[in-house]
């Protein structure tokens, strides 16, 4: 049976993609069974009130993605072996997951290392990095502070700091958070960590065992996915939509009752750049509390806000005793410092401390004292003002270039802070193919499937807008847009 036309010519998504989705859902619902011959093109065109070329384009997409096969002279058939696909998600509600196609793990390779390497390859104009570019670092201020602090600390610069962190660093971090309107409450403590990634590792090791299920955003920061996998825990995806992690989806996944942790990047999310609203945070807090799930909030990008006010962090909302907060100076100051902080209720913090101590013993005394000085002197605040302004200019340059040169149907996020934006291209664009093409043209970005535990995101890409000056970004994004348009037309 063919349904009468369900297509909407006024929708943002082009007709051929709407038709492709409709036909695919007929196959997924087994209304069109494996091996069945598809109605002829003119019949489909008539039923769906579209041009024949639109039908041909939709069929070409289904063929290329393995749902349909054609036999010369006989027509198109539902494929005998259907690709593995998740239940269809409403693309209007969950656009950031990309199409329902998936790639196999072996198609991805050792991406984390490669992405870092590519990002540092000077021959490429790369948008794949996840750290601030050196031209936005306060290099001179740090150099002077190191010299001054070395003199001040004298011999004590070279001994172990206290395992929980150098006192001047911990005090300065607490004062900074207080001045930002998010003081560390009584009964909670702060601990120095060598970055948010190490913070997550130590939390996972303290609160979970191999085989445990850890809820993650879908898409999710790829370093967290790699860590969860490496430690033998299972990453369970929870879809993200325009407003961040979707609480309804979370509620239904929590019903199963076997998740231990929720890992989230609620502010200027990596990779989409979106920020979870306060209302959603409150609901997620209540849901996780009810199900005994610890929330690990990674606030690595929180200080890089360039539009609007701060959304309260999970830990500062009422009823947040099951929250662990990770902060980092990697994006707001310098990734090479390897410094961040972990905030948690005292009882949890003391459990985490035991595990961290056996890993790191202590963090560099000098670097902690330097950052402490920088925070206290107001240097960090002045640096953030400059950094935020530059990030905003760079984001605007990238958005303008995308709007001018990417396909009309592309969906793009407009982050109000952070460093990344997320692009969802038409379903038939493979970001892995595009990536290969881009590299050969001297361009780099992070392909979507890196950010999903289940190989999704085939038509998505993450672009870091912080890396290059606006003029470089404009030129390179225009070239990337040209490559997307120049892909060979799909053959029916
Ligand atoms: C969300 C998120 N968390 C943590 C990290 C790693 O940060 P750190 O250098 O503090 O370990 C990154 C780096 O890209 C990130 O994007």
TrEMBL record:
SMART domains named among the record's database cross-references: HTH_GNTR
Keywords, comma-separated and alphabetical: DNA-binding, Pyridoxal phosphate, Transcription, Transcription regulation
Pfam families: Aminotran_1_2 (PF00155), GntR (PF00392)
HTH gntR-type domain: residues covered: 13-81
Record-linked PROSITE patterns: HTH_GNTR (PS50949)
Classification via InterPro entries: Aminotransferase_I/II_large, HTH_trans_reg/aminotransferase, PyrdxlP-dep_Trfase, PyrdxlP-dep_Trfase_major, PyrdxlP-dep_Trfase_small, Tscrpt_reg_HTH_GntR, WH-like_DNA-bd_sf, WH_DNA-bd_sf
CDD domains assigned to the protein according to its UniProt record, in alphabetical order: AAT_like, WHTH_GntR
GO MF annotation: an example: DNA-binding transcription factor activity
Family, similarity comment: In the C-terminal section; belongs to the class-I pyridoxal-phosphate-dependent aminotransferase family.
Protein name: GntR family transcriptional regulator
Species per Swiss-Prot/TrEMBL record: Mesoterricola sediminis
């Amino acid at each position: 049976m063919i349904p009468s036309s369900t297509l909407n010519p006024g929708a943002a998504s082009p007709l051929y993609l709407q038709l492709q989705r409709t036909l695919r859902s007929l196959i997924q619902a087994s209304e069109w069974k494996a091996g069945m011959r598809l109605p002829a093109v003119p019949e489909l065109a008539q039923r769906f009130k579209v041009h024949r070329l639109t039908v041909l384009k939709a069929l070409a997409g289904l063929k290329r993605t393995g749902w349909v096969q054609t036999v010369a002279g006989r027509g198109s058939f539902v494929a005998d072996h259907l690709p593995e696909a998740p239940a269809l998600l409403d693309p209007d509600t969950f656009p950031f997951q990309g199409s329902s196609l998936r790639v196999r793990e072996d198609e991805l390779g050792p991406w984390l290392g490669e992405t870092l390497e590519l990002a540092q390859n000077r021959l490429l104009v790369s948008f794949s990095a996840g750290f601030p570019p050196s031209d936005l670092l306060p290099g001179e201020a740090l150099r002077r502070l190191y010299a001054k602090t070395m003199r001040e600390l004298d011999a004590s610069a070279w001994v172990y700091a206290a395992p929980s962190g150098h006192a001047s660093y911990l005090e300065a971090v607490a004062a900074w958070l207080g001045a930002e309107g998010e003081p560390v409450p009584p009964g909670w403590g702060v601990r120095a960590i060598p970055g948010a990634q190490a913070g997550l590792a130590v939390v996972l090791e303290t609160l979970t065992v191999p085989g445990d299920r850890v809820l993650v955003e879908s898409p999710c920061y790829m370093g967290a996915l790699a860590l969860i996998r490496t430690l033998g825990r299972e990453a369970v995806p929870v879809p993200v939509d325009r407003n961040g992690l979707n609480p309804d989806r979370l509620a239904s996944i929590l019903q199963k009752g076997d998740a231990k942790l929720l890992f989230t990047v609620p502010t200027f999310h990596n990779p989409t750049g979106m920020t979870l609203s306060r209302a959603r945070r409150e609901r997620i807090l209540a849901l996780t509390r009810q199900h005994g799930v610890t929330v690990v909030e990674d606030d690595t990008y929180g200080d890089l806000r360039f539009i609007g006010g701060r959304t309260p962090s999970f830990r500062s909302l009422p009823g947040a005793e099951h929250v662990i907060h990770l902060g980092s100076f990697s994006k707001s100051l310098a990734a090479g410092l390897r410094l961040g902080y972990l905030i948690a209720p005292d009882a949890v913090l003391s459990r985490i401390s035991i595990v961290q101590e056996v890993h790191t013993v202590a963090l560099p005394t000098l670097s902690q004292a330097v950052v402490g000085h920088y925070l206290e002197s107001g240097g960090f605040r002045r640096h953030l003002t400059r950094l935020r302004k530059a990030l905003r200019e760079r984001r605007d340059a990238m958005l303008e270039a995308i709007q001018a040169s990417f396909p009309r149907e592309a969906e793009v996020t407009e982050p109000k802070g952070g460093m990344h934006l997320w692009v969802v291209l038409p379903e038939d664009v493979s970001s892995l193919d595009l990536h290969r093409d881009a590299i050969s043209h001297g361009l780099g970005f992070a392909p979507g499937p890196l950010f999903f535990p289940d190989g999704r995101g085939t038509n998505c890409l993450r672009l870091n807008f912080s890396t290059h000056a606006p003029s470089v970004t404009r030129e390179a994004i225009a070239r990337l847009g040209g490559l997307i348009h120049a892909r060979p037309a799909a053959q029916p």
